[in-house]
Amino acid sequence: MSATDLVPTMDENEKKIVNEFCHLLEKSKQLFNGLRDLPQYGHKQWQSYFGRTFDVYTKLWKFQQQHRWQIGEVASKIGQLYYHYYLRTSETNYLNEAFSFYSAIRNRGYYSKANKEERSDLMVKKLRFYARFIVVCLLLKRMKLVKDLVKELQAQIEDYTLTYEPEDQMEWTLVVGEINAFLESDNLIDIHDVDPNYFLLSHRLTPLNTPPLDKSTPVYLALQEIIIVGNTADQVKFSELTLDMFRVLQTLEREPQEDFTGTQIYDASPAPGRPPFENGDKNSKRDNPHKYLLYKPTYSQMNTFLASGFKELPPNGAMLLYLSADGSLGNAKHTDDAAYDLGVNPTVYIQEIYTRKPLFLIVDSDNSSAFQNFPNLFGQPVVCFLSPEQVPHAMQDQNQKGKLFTLFLHSPLMAFCLVCNYMSISIATWDKCQAQVNKFMAEASKLFVKSRSIDHAYIQFLGDDFLRLIMLRFVFCYIVLILHRGFKGPSYYPMSHPPLPTEEILEHPVLCKIVLELATLLDCRHVMSEPGEVDIHATT
């Protein structure tokens, strides 16, 4: 029975309450459906719309707390709003808000009677709820809960199939297959001797892993806009999020705060906490840069998002463009419906990427050298980090589970374990090795500041925590690969443009010594060359 069915049996005051609720419910549906029509790019075009939508759903939530009408439906929509707001703003605290509402739905069984309905509509909503909840938990790295949710989703799909014999059964089975493949591929290293209920291996930025910087170092630029592009044909993905995109997304975010509102997940009703536009929040400083996630975009889409991102940059802002893409063979025709890949003619791509404002470019591709001579036409700081174009034969199948260069930028220690074939590690050893990696980052940071020959573009980006982290991890990747006996020659090493100083940074004996000490901790010193044995002919 719906709220409107009760109207004839109520007094005037009750009718007024029900009519107001029905009005808010209809208004909320209109606003929520309108989210699909909002442009994916540009901040100002959707901020006020989200604010109005949150206001309506906050009022609805108060109604449901008093009268328990359509509580599951409202909670689900609020969870979706917070998740969409996270995607728009990259503020990770809103993931916690979404988690709060989704947890309430699951723990209280709001969809428990979905399979009793004559029509399948409610059951489909239940399956979509599970899929969204899994994505939120993946982003929060709540992996044990993800595994539980996947089992529950599988059971719900079987129930859905038996009850309704739907035409979309295979589509839902494919969803479960994608999730399982994603989880298996992301689980590269077995870290044992830990309690899975309490152990959380996060790769977001925290005060503990933020690389130090000399206080006297001037801060010129702040990373404000990020475009993450995934276009690798065979790489594992889930919900238009490839493994490379998933890893870079976390690398360029701060760990969510624990003091967010509305987090009473298990014992009390969650509440829509901290409306995003309260007290002028739309103009306040963000903890995280704003990000666009583009899965196999067309050329026109790329240009549109680039133009919008550069337009939104404040005077001291910088953009980061990350490309994970296959290199095309031959001169591909560039049409609007063509997926964005990296061809052999770099001039086409150079023309489509704007350098009128500060740009930090990361390319992970087997044709990354197409950007090797990236021009700086307008005098703005431009830095390019380009992946190796080759990996040892034994690691060639690894690309499906994420590219190696991206893994080094995401989790240097995990990438080190992978190239040394060290696939199982105790938590005690992991912590010792992580301390060694942190030591490397601290020393490398000092070398950037001390260098007399480093290009000024690096110094302009160094003051930003995220960009400094990327720069230091690039150096770690470079030194590991030049020392590793399995990586032989320039095409196996990453490149930087402008070139980083070789003697002052890239081959500095202190950094090489720290990497060799790390190899000793993992008992894989034999796979590393002595620094004097390395004959480097790479252009960096």
UniProtKB/TrEMBL annotation:
GO terms for biological process: DNA-templated transcription. GO terms for molecular function: transcription corepressor activity. Transmembrane segments: none annotated. Residues 260-288 are annotated as: Disordered. InterPro entries: SCAI. Residues 279-288 have a biased composition (Basic and acidic residues). PANTHER family: PROTEIN SCAI (PTHR21243). This is Protein SCAI. It comes from Mytilus coruscus. The lineage of its organism: Eukaryota, Metazoa, Spiralia, Lophotrochozoa, Mollusca.
